[in-house]
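Quiz preparation item.
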């Protein structure tokens, strides 16, 4: 009995093998035509990212498909789509949002020796569900024709009455503002942030401009004297025009340090192209970290997360500074509180 079924099983397998071999022989291209892709939900909108992804595709044959949106809208999509999401990767401009996504189970851990080696522990999730790829300092930008650097010190000091009608800030709706206020709350507590930072800032009647680039341009044009922006927006404009009257000041150097956020990635919990996503992450953390000026982060003038990667010379010209050492998770933990506090204090 068992001999007969073994024999018939063997016969079936031989037929199957023959069919499969024939199919390959008839159309060998078909065997290799499965397209290799990785689908990214990206909150980044920088043109500089495109050459990086093109280079990744050239080197690996994996096509990168981008779907862009605000951090909040991408998180909403991931929540709504659940296991049906077409996204393999979430790419954000804020570590706090990656922390929130991980907390909600939207990301999965990646056990990769390459990533552990390339990205310092303080720039990634302790459970390896997300990894920082670039670092961005939230700095003070000032017009040297209007302001001496000795007049500047901390973020909070911009609440001094001397800055009335001289400030340009990003609105409360933007993740950069929310992350900054979250870090303040983590450091000082909500009451101090409200009374010693946000209310004095608002009393100085800042202009709210929903673009860091335009804040830099407005400072350069004399429309305001001081702003708060990510450092690379200043670097980008100085690279184009070295004579532009804007300078970077790193705040809180006599206190905890300047607030630094991350742009980074996590792989979605149900990623269908998980291997390709891991390959992308590993590539961005190593080869893609800024080997030349057109690649990430050099192309965007950010600080690489990988300490072995070179820093763009314009960015390096800003000098070294003390970084606020709080864990990046705090930017997510205090985000809801920051949003409520911004609304309550009348910060637009
Ligand atoms: Fe940005």
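Solution:
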């Amino acid at each position: 009995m068992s001999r007969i079924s073994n024999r018939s099983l063997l016969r079936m397998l031989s037929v199957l093998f023959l069919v499969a071999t024939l199919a390959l022989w008839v159309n060998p291209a078909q065997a290799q035509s499965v397209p290799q892709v990785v689908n990214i939900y990206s909150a980044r909108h920088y043109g500089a990212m495109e050459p990086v992804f093109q280079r990744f595709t050239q080197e690996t044959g994996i096509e990168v498909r981008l779907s862009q949106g605000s951090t909040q809208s991408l998180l909403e999509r991931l929540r709504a789509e659940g296991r049906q999401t077409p996204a393999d990767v979430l790419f954000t401009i804020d570590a706090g949002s990656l922390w929130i996504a991980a907390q909600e189970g939207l990301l999965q851990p990646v056990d990769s020796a390459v990533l552990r080696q390339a990205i310092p522990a303080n720039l990634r999730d302790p459970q390896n569900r997300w990894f920082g790829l670039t670092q961005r300092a939230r700095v003070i930008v000032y017009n040297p024709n209007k302001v001496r650097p000795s007049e500047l010190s901390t973020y909070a000091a911009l609440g001094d009455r001397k800055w009335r009608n001289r400030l340009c800030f990003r609105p409360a709706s933007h993740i950069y503002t929310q992350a900054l206020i979250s870090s303040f709350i983590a450091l000082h507590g909500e009451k101090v942030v409200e009374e010693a930072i946000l209310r004095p800032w608002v009393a100085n009647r800042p202009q709210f401009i929903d673009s860091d680039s335009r804040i830099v341009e407005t400072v350069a044009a004399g429309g305001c004297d001081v702003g708060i922006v990510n450092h690379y927006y200043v670097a980008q404009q100085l690279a184009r025009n070295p004579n532009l009257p804007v300078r970077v000041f790193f705040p809180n150097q006599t206190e905890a340090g300047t607030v630094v956020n991350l742009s980074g990635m996590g792989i979605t919990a149900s990623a269908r192209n998980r291997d390709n996503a891991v390959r992308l992450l590993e590539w961005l953390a190593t080869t893609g970290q800024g080997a030349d000026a057109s690649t990430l982060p050099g192309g965007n003038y950010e600080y690489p997360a990988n300490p072995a990667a070179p820093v763009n010379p314009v960015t390096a010209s800003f000098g070294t500074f003390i970084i606020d050492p709080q864990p990046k998770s705090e930017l997510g933990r205090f985000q809801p509180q920051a949003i409520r506090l911004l609304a309550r204090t009348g910060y637009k």
